[in-house]
Amino acid sequence: MMVSKAVIGCQWGDEGKGKIVDLLAEDSDLIVRFQGGANAGHTVLVEGRKYKFHQIPSGLLYEGKTGLIADGCVIDLDLLVEELNILGDGSRVLVGDRASIVLPYHKRMDELQEKTRKKGIGTTKRGIGPCYSHRVGRMGLRVSDLSNDEMLEVRIDEIYPFIEDLTTKDSLLDYLRNRREIVEGMAVSTPNFLSDSRGEDILFEGAQGTMLDVNYGTYPFTTSSSTTVGAICTGCGVPPSFIDEVLGVAKAYTTRVGEGPFTTELKDDMGDRLREKGDEYGTTTGRPRRCGWLDLVVLKHSQMLNGFSQLVITKLDVLSGLKEIKACTGYDLGGEEIETFPTDLSLVRECVPIYERFGGWDTDPKSGRLPREARDYLRFIEDYLAVKITMVSIGAEREEVITDGF
Ligand code: GDP
Ligand code: IMO
Ligand code: MG
């Protein structure tokens, strides 16, 4: 049966979505990025070779696949070219003609805004926030604006009063004229294309994670797009009935890169151990990721927002060799136990994690069936969230995954 599947990060990004998308892409025809831009950093490891995708979908390493960077995305044309070169000619990439174009001044604004904030967000400085602001402020440029030179000039004239402090008309025109060819032949109307593709196996690849969602994450310490499942509808122009299955991807522990509250963060040796064993350094910026125990309150929030039909747990191997493992099952907020994620960040900052403790395991999970303690840990997660875990990743390589026996 032809199905469309969505892959959504449950935490603060870097859950291993790239690896899972690569894995599922073998049986897919079309892989679609529906939000975000080159702030994403999705790693795929195949036979020792590491690929890092920021702008294009991760599932295009197999021959004959089609990738689509849909309308909900913001596109950095220079990075797009770089990544197209990684692929060679084996697969093809399309871009939504309503997708926004990230311009050089968006990146400068991103840097400046970070400096201006009393407390920086720790953005990737890829111009994401300013580009989305210009989109919703109706002063942005889209892929379709590049389709003919006359129209491009008209559009630039229209937006120029808003950006004249940021660029000259000529340098903007030059920048875009020099890059028009990149998307020539790639642009499609996303809703029309997808509606014609219904019936194929489609994979929607989320970027960032639920807690970075601009509405439902830890605002303002979020990204500037909606990262949850609803973004597929708005970012691709498809109805909800278009999405058959929703897979949540969660790490067996938690990481966060950038600023903002993180209740289960470990600022001790255990945090360092998770960072070193899990190689937790940002794919896009190289920054060390903050590490902590699994937060099931976060996952429950994520489950509520996305309605996962399946859960994928990644990086379980990183927990091997620990005497004890903890997972947060609630927050103590002023003496009261809560299991829902507060809206107000000042309340989130007051929350003290309440932990369930689990016995650790030494056995290398690479060798067949998972150790009993690891299975107990997974079972607890399933029961807490009332979602089935259908895949467990136990290493970065494509093959290092278990789909039964846990
Ligand atoms: P994404 O942004 O969600 O695609 O995740 P990233 O690629 O930014 O970060 C995940 C990192 O963990 C990458 O370096 C992956 O190669 C690696 N990885 C993915 N799955 C596993 C796993 O099960 N075990 C280990 N040890 N590493 C993994
Ligand atoms: P993937 O797809 C982890 C974080 C940044 C910062 C905040 C805002 O690889 O999971 P932005 O540049 O988007 O304005 O930054 O969001 N962030 C990510 N963290 N993984 C990502 O993507 C991220 N993309 C953005 O660190 O805290
Ligand atoms: Mg990443």
Write a brief structural summary.
The protein is of the alpha/beta class. It has helices at residues 17-25, 77-87, 104-116, 128-136, 149-163, 169-177, 180-183, 190-197, 230-236, 269-277, 296-306, 345-350, 372-385; strands at 4-9, 30-33, 42-46, 49-53, 66-69, 74-75, 92-96, 100-101, 187-188, 202-205, 245-251, 254-256, 290-292, 294-295, 310-314, 324-333, 336-338, 352-359, 389-393, 401-402.
How much is the average pLDDT?
96
Largest sheet composition: 10 strands, mixed
Please report which band the strand proportion falls in: under 5%, 5-15%, 15-25%, 25-35%, 35-45% or over 45%.
Answer: 15-25%
What is the alpha-carbon Rg in Å?
A: 21 Å
How many separate helices?
Answer: 13
Which small molecules are bound? guanosine-5'-diphosphate, 6-O-phosphoryl inosine monophosphate, magnesium ion
Cα separation of the termini: 26 Å
Indicate the low-confidence ranges by residue numbers. none
The helix/strand class is alpha/beta
